[in-house]
Design a protein that fits this description.
Length: 98
């Protein structure tokens, strides 16, 4: 089984953009699935970050569909060809858009 991404953080870059950053813990995954929860609701997938599969190090996903006042929680997991399936979800990180 893949290990989940670690050192996750969510940082507002501007009025409509939040960056979800994390470290790649793998060398055999094909990417990372990124999910977001809005205002405490259910998580839904908002994107995939592709990797070279060679331990890419620092990775990020820019969420460009955010609005003032939203409370956004992000998480990610490694995906790819693994008989055991994807990794567990990373710890989550929350930001309130201001």
């Amino acid at each position: 089984m893949f290990a989940p991404p670690f050192n996750v953080s969510a940082v507002q870059l501007g009025p409509t953009t939040v960056r979800f950053k994390f470290l790649d813990a793998q060398s055999k995954e094909s990417g990372y699935e990124i999910q977001r929860s809005v205002n405490g609701g259910a998580f839904s997938t908002i994107g995939i970050v592709s990797t070279s599969g060679a331990g890419s190090g620092n990775l990020f996903f820019d969420d460009i569909n955010v609005l003032f006042g939203m409370q956004l929680t992000y998480r990610g997991r490694a995906i790819g060809r693994n008989p055991s399936g994807p990794s567990a979800w990373s710890t989550s990180n929350t930001v309130v858009v201001h």
